[in-house]
Amino acid sequence: MLFWFFLSVYLITVMGNLLIILAISSDSHLHTPMYFFLSILSLDDICFISTTVPKMLVNLQSHSRAISCVGCLTQMCLFIFFGCMDGMLLTVMAYDRFVAICHPLNYPLIMNPHLCFSLVLLSLVVSFLEGQLHVWMALQITHFMEMEIPNFFCDLSQILDLSCRDTFSNDVFKYVVAIIYGFPTIFGILLSYYKMISSVLRIPSSGGKYKAFSTCGSHLSVVCLLFGTALGVYVESAVSHSSRGSAVSSVMYTVVTPFLNPFIYSLRNRDLKSVLIRLFKQGVDTRS
How many C-beta atoms surround the C-beta of residue 99 within 10 A? Predict the structure, then answer.
């Protein structure tokens, strides 16, 4: 039962994000910085969920959670890379919305193609270094050949729990890693929204305020979903130390978040929704 459920979620996630990429690439009106970052985010979500769910499906079929040292480190590195990339892209998208709302006249000059590609490249470099940092940390504190992870993917916190270190040291280490990973992205997003809210509140008409806030509603929903569930995982693991509870919490931000992103952006975005409907109608007309 679980196998078919997660297989369905995985296929829907991949298809939904591919549709967003197809819609953005096929319509010239969507060739803007905001949709460029959204297409990269959709591609990252496909890779993000693909680092965990396929292995989990194999585990469900084989009834085994064993994984080799190389396999665990590889999965952890890719998971952190794409997860960090997710957070970095959301920060970049928050900056894009800040420029669009606070500096609308200079928006085309500021968010030029060179800057957009540079921001994506910076996100790639930071994410790569983050992944290497986690692997280096794991190699410094644990020595293992083959093991069974009490979760459906290799995470640094799970490896720490299998080490011989005491629980308090493990918790301190987890929070240090979480701060290194999460603080810069969260700070960037909060700073961008603080500037945006301050600027929007100075708009005299309520219609203008609604229009300004509506442009970042989807982004804010995804930010709350990703960072809220990720924070819940760290809090739950620190409070309960239950492997089953940690696994359930991890599903929320590793599976549910990439699954919901296409629905959030397609249902709350009028332009993207209209392009998807047009593509669907063209597909139906072609078949008929």
Answer: 20
